[in-house]
## 1
Amino acid sequence: MDAVAHYERGLAKAEARDPKGALQDFNQALRLDKNFAAAYYSRGQVRLVLGDHKAALEDWSQAIRANPRYGDAYFSRGSLRLTLGNFQAAVEDFTQVLWLNPKDARSCMSRGLAYRHLENPQLALADLTQAITLSPQLAEAYRHRATLYRHLNNYPAAFTDYTQALSINPNDAEAYQGRSQLRQQQGDLRGSLQDCNYALRLDSDNPNLYCHRARLRLEVGDQEGAIGDYTQALRLNPKLITAYSERGLAYGETSEWSKAIADQSQALRLDPKFALAYHRRGLIHYRQANIGAALDDWERALRLDPTLAEAYNHRGVAYAKMEELDRALRDYQQAIKLKPDYAEAYNNRGLAYARQGNINAALQDYQQALTHNPQYAEAHYNLGNIYVDVGNPRAAIEHYSQAIATKPDFALAYGNRGLALQSMGYLQQAIVDTQKATDLFLQQGLQAYYQRSQEALKKLYQLHQESAEAATSGGNPSPTNSSGGLSFPLA
């Protein structure tokens, strides 16, 4: 048999899914003809199937040396380089294909992907748009451009492109996943879950999709459903570190502490340098009131990743609980330095300043927290408390109301708004708020607050009765600007 016969038999074996047999024939063809470009190319394809990436790249390079105008070899080499993260080399290969054939839409699309990974969004967008112009039915190009738009925060354009991709190819699971992630970013959790479910029907063996749906379920408060999804992801990939760590967080939300700790520990066995798992295990220890173990884990997390702002913030909370306010402030400041828009760290630093009596600094931090997150109920609540302290109950009521609008079951905000209303003489409204706070404290099992709220309510009814009697008799009503020493601080 000559080289061409071995080559053709190799193609037949490759078509019959016999890559090892095909490899033998391509080898024989190249022994007979060392400049057989097509044999190099096809052997590269077989080696790719067999997982030998280095040999595949070398074969395609040999094919190009034998035939410098071999567009398919440039494209295959560029595609593998893109997959392996050699983005600049991939750009060069796709550019060569486009020099040979300027109307090659797939090469244009693939070069756009490489430019996106090289953080050159302008060139990426130009190439993806050109790919769509060249091939208006290329669903992948719409999907990739949608993902680029999403990262550029152009959500309307991203939504349009994902939807167009799905109209062309209704079985594109990745487009459903991308649109699900987009809807999640926009706060449309119902739509996001719907798209994720569609994606899973099309790609039910994808552990990352189960993890994505688990995160969505956590956002809507479905901890049990999230745990089930993480468990399914781990059945599909028992070494999926993030699934263990995130399932551990879900177990923490259901107070299954031993399972929560076990999952974080398993993640760390799989990757002892996974700083986030130390951080998360620290959170679980803290919620169990095991502050020493929490501090140890956060220390390990920060040794592995000194940029982990969340670990500094939570360690600051632990220090504050231990009354080590100076250490807490240092940690909050470091968290803010690493993450200047970290609303929670500003709020926590404000609490520490307030406890030190630095009211102005506390007020500025609460305002800064609300600049970064205007819907931050706790920051509104804390700012309301500051305004009470400085004698501005009207401003306090405004912020307590904002806190309640964002978090309708915020018992503490109802309680303190009632006290502020009382101080302004609005007894009837104060009774309504204090009654609501009392009911919520009881529902939430906050016994100490419930008892204090009952005391405040009793005093309000007494004041209201005295005021009514005084009005009837023409006397002076009792003063109403005292809360009897009661207040409801945020623990």
## 2
Amino acid sequence: MKLLLAVLCAAGLSIGAFANEAACIQGDSEACLEQAIAYDRGDGVERDAAKADALYKRSCDGKNAVGCHNLAVSLEDAGSATKAAPFYKKGCVLGNATSCANLAQLYQTANGDSCALCVKACTKEAIVKDETTHHLRYSDELCTSCGECVSVCPTGAIDLAAYP
């Protein structure tokens, strides 16, 4: 037991952190989330944002909505809304309402208006902007799946996936 404690101390891990690391390696997304939060806050381990993000990603990959959300927040805080958007989207799909709300915020500019770069990119008028409500409208019939809208979207809000 003393040897184990010495190894944990040398690695900078508490017993709880060691247990979470081990469970995370075994595929426990909740343990990955708990360990990510520990690294994010410096709780029982030395604070390390890169390790936290890697563990949030692992948690998200394991379909943990909070892991997806926390990774998105970290990426957005670091100034990368484009990288954050897919993780907010996944968190939202997995049932995290705050991820849905944050994703919606990313889809708008600071003045609350849609950025509408996709409207300018679409030569077929499959995406149009309602000038009264400022909402974007999409027409499946007019879309040719060229991908121009996807390429200009700064938040990753648009994809060409088929939905049922």
## 3
Amino acid sequence: MIFASVASCNRADNSAENNNTTASTGVIEIDSANITQYPIQIGYIPPIKIQQSVQVNGYIEIPPQNRATVYAHLGGFVKEVYVLEGSYVKKGQILADLQDPHYITLQMEYVQARSKLEYNEKEYNRQLELLDKNIGSKKDYQVAQADYRTAKALTNSLAAQINILGLDTAKIITGEIVNHIHLRAPIQGYIKFVNVNIGKYVTEQEPLFEVIDTRHLHIELKVYENDAYKIRKGQKILFTLQDNITSKYEAEVYLLGKIFDTQSRTMLIHAHISEKNTTHFLPGMYVSAQILVNNDERPVLSSDAIWEDMGKMYVFAYGNINSKIIFTKTEIQAQKINDTTYSISADDKILKQKIVLKGAYYLISEADRSAE
């Protein structure tokens, strides 16, 4: 590789008389003795690893198992509210108390059903014993058996309802009847919304609280159909938040959707956030992301090596004949990677030749000056 140093303007002007520049043919001849006056770099086009990416958008979300909506299992009036929106709660923590006469009625029905069950169980066992001794009738035994099974089913049904309300059947049997129930947090996390106030009557169909656990945030991204084939599990993602585009965060592709949205022609991508501290991330935040899909090695040129003329791209191929250095304007097929970098096709013949890698501008100026 040849590196030429920058010389003074006077020397360059004087030496121009010894150079033969033909702008029309795209050939520039320079005496070997004068080459050091041009700040150019000559060599073969180097291969460089190019990171390709797919630009996508999406939102920060939480998985369904980390989001819980709290309903009243049985309607009632709000007696107390213990949390506010944004409050952190532990699993099982009381969010509010409800009260209603129905709660008392349900407990009384359970006590009565339990008492009747005990009676029916004894009667069933008595009739079974009589039948075994051939004393009782089979009909009486069947009636006792049916009554016992019915009483047992009713008792178990009421017990299940009471357990859903969070009441203790063991205490109820001893006579501890309460007029209110607790609404508890099903998971730990933060209260997203509160839809209750003291004195309000709530029904079983009305969402009262939502709790979100932000320890397992993820990103949901939409990839367009023409880029979907590039995405693979495990690929690295760089993303920014809409309110802070200067800070970049990392994530990783975890799941690929199997169904395309027929309207938007996109596929859903599920990605895990690599950051350990996610306290500044909130569900619903908009993100702009780049999925790093390839890391190919390609021949690459800087824009300093390329001459664009009439919509075509050229480089200066290097040659040496006797005491003359010859630069030949040669068309290439280049693909723009960014504002300063271009990739060259791997089968381009120019890869086997030395070219001007830097400083093509000075040769262009030389050609323009000689043409005047």
## 4
Amino acid sequence: MPAAGSPAVHFPRRRPIGQAASREFEQASGFRFTDDSRWFIAREPSEEGSGSQMVVVNLRDGSVHHHAHISSYILAPRVGVVLGNVPAQRRDGDRPALELLHLNSGERIRIDHGRQATLSPDGRRAALLTQPPKGNQRLIVVDLQTLEIREVGQAGQFDSRPLWHPEGDRLALVQRDGESSGAVGLAVYAAGDDVGLLHELDQRWVLLYSRFDVYRASPDGERVERLTQGREHRIRFREHRLDWHAGPPDETSALYFSAFNEQDKSHGYLRHEPDEGARWLINQPRRLQFLQKADAADAFVVMAESATESPNFHFTDDDFRTLRRVTNTNPQQ
């Protein structure tokens, strides 16, 4: 793999924008601009007669650069880097590659067997997968400003595109064990200053939402279980974590769901136990939110408010029969 500091390369071909170029762009698509308005890229029919190629226009000097070997691309507009897919038939070897092209410097690196690239929330890094002919797949992160490459993790088979956490410090993927066709589950990797596997959701399921209900499903989609009964009563259920900083629930954990009735506008909470199924904890004609549990006791607090009641926290034990107000906010605030 070329080093990030490899010499700058020349663009394949340069041509001033003119009448011929204007006619050429009539069949172009996928138009994108960099944030500094210096570069414009698009996809056009390949000169070879099949497929497509990438064309790059320098809006400052009017030059046009064709990249016939790149069939599709992702643009990181903030840093002016293109992540281009190079099909196997357009390069030496029998596997595709991913090429990173820094538009301002002309520097580029090629990552053999690269695929499934996704940009970080700030647009300055990219996560992607590589599949060597032998061995495990690799999850890598590329700094798009320096083109530095860091390996984050390996697995027998990643089965999804990397998904960034909104804060940009974690990546989640579905992964398999490489020896069977069954999905292992979700894996979460650190992708900030430190890298590596954080935890695996080895319970082999994920939660999915419909308009009203929550379903538990295996990552391969073979097993799907409906956990709530909201559709019949137009009640919208969503997962509620008592502690979002704790690890993910496993097959023995109770699951909590918030509830909102679209007909009478009531709110509530539901708890699903692995052996007992789902049961209502509380349902009231006022807004309930921020349900939390004590660390070492079966005691809860929840905020309640209505059109005539200012928001206050209430205490209750595990049966949720009585709510005792523990705060007294100013109704004028």
